[in-house]
Write a structure and sequence with these properties.
Blueprint (H helix, E strand, L loop, with lengths): L2 E4 L9 H8 L5 E7 L11 H8 L5 E7 L7 H7 L3 E5 L5 H10 L3 E6 L5 H4 L8 E5 L14 H15 L4 E5 L7 H6 L4 E4 L1 H4 L4 H19 L1
Helix pairs in contact: 2-3
The protein binds D-xylitol-5-phosphate and zinc ion.
């Protein structure tokens, strides 16, 4: 699978519906960056905006919760129509959150910051629907890709293959035409892209180009 999850963080929040419709022909994923000004030094949006978006699209709403206390908000995201919630490994209570998300009818993802130690979170991987490897420190769009995380990505892919788990491997931060090929070769399947999609004049075309670059990397390696 190769899928681009455009991050609406780089879209114009006054025209979110239009931004989402613009990318719908090219992807069924939408990445929603939720920030609380505490876990990360930035504030964005929450469940009410997810509910508004839900009324305008059937896309898979991949909600990335960069918040300190996700357990207090999971039911709000479920009611709003989120398809998956991805909380951070760094906030703890991982297995409890996985169960809560699933009991509420959502898929459960866990994100790891670039400095997370693989051995510390590896045991959770087979129990997740999605592992999100951050290739920037979360908080802002438009940062530079941290290539060091590719090592953890490769190890996560191996572990998923060995365990037979169906965990989806997603990467987030600094994904561009220059970095998507390396990420794809390391095992990522879903690529979050903010500025490389909504920062471009033609977001749909940008997605086509990113997908083509990832596919090319795959073909060359085969
Ligand atoms: C960063 C967010 C990312 C961000 C990606 O904290 O989690 O999803 O929007 O933006 P780009 O693709 O511009 O790095
Ligand atoms: Zn994100």
């Amino acid at each position: 699978m190769i899928e681009i999850a455009p991050s609406i963080l780089s879209a114009d929040f006054a025209y979110l519906g239009e931004a989402i419709h613009a990318v719908e022909p090219e992807t069924s994923w939408i990445h929603v960056d939720v920030m609380d000004g505490h876990f990360v030094p930035n504030l964005t949006i929450g469940a009410p905006v997810v509910a508004s978006i839900r009324r305008h699209t059937n896309s898979y709403l991949d909600c990335h919760l960069m918040i300190t206390d996700p357990w207090d908000y999971l039911s709000d995201f479920a009611k709003a129509g989120a398809d998956s919630v991805t909380f951070h490994f760094e906030v703890g209570r991982t297995l409890e959150l996985v169960k809560m998300a699933r009991d509420l009818g959502m898929k459960a993802g866990m994100a790891v910051n670039p400095d997370a130690v693989f051995e510390d979170y590896a045991s959770f991987i087979p129990q997740l629907d999605l592992l999100l490897v951050m290739s920037v420190f979360p908080g802002f769009a438009g940062q530079s890709f941290i290539a060091d995380v590719l090592h953890s990505l490769r190890r996560a892919k191996e572990l998923i293959n060995e365990s037979g788990a169906g965990t989806i491997l997603e990467i987030d931060g600094g994904i561009s035409l220059e970095t998507i090929n390396r990420s794809c070769l390391a095992g990522a399947e879903v690529f979050v892209a903010g500025s490389a999609v909504f920062g471009k004049p033609d977001p749909a075309k940008a997605i086509r180009e990113l997908k083509a670059a990832a596919r090319h990397a795959q073909e060359v390696s085969e």
